[in-house]
Amino acid sequence: MNNAPNGYNTITPYLIVPNAAGFISFMKDVFDAELLNQHMRDETIIMHAELKVGDSLIMLADSTPEYPPMPAGLFIYVKDADATFSLALEKGAAQILPLSDQSYGRSGGVKDAFGNTWWITSVQGA
Predict the structure, then answer these.
(1) For domain 14-122, which architecture applies?
(2) What is the pTM of this model?
(3) Do residues 14 and 60 touch, judged by C-beta distance below 8 A?
(4) Helix (H) or strand (E) holding 36
(5) Which distant-in-sequence residues (6+ apart) come within 8 Å of 113 by Cβ?
(6) Is 105 left (phi over 0), alpha (psi -120 to 50) or beta?
C-alpha cells in the first residue's frame, strides 16, 4: 500500500549531513540532481531539502548537535559508471572499491566528503 504523495516513493532516503549545501552541489555536479525544494532553519542551516536524481528522491538536512550526521550507503545506476566515478573523485569523493566488471554491470564504490557511500553502477547494454 502506497500512501505517498504523487511523485514520491513509498520509501525515500533521508540523509542528515554536515554541509548540506555542499552535498547538494556534489549531487548536482556528479549525478545531475535537481533541487526540488529547500527550507532554511536560519541563514546557514538547511532544515529540509529534496533532490531528484533520475526517477528517485532524496531528502536531506544539515546536521546539528540535536541531529548528528546520519550518512547512508546508496546504490545508483548511471549511464556511464566510468565517467560518473571519475567525476565523483574530482568532486572530493574517495575511492573505496575500484571500478570493475561484475555479473550485474560495471561497478565501483566511493565515499563522498559528507560520509555517504555510493555504489556507482552501469549495466552493460542498457
Answers:
(1) Roll (3.10)
(2) 0.92
(3) yes
(4) strand 34-40
(5) 19, 22, 26, 92, 93
(6) left
Q: How far apart are CA 28 and CA 32, in angstroms?
A: 5
Specify the pLDDT at position 4.
75
Q: How far apart are CA 114 and CA 46, in angstroms?
A: 14
Polymer length of the chain: 126
The pLDDT assigned to 20 comes to 97
Q: Are strands 94-102 and 117-122 parallel, antiparallel or unpaired?
A: unpaired
> Cell 525544494 appears where?
37
Q: Are 92 and 109 in contact (CB under 8 A)?
A: no
The identity of residue 118, as a single letter, is W
DSSP 70: B
CA distance 100 to 81: 10
Reading across the β-sheet that carries 56-62, which strands appear in turn? 14-17, 56-62, 46-53, 34-40
pLDDT at 2: 65
Indicate the helix (H) or strand (E) that contains 26.
Answer: helix 20-31
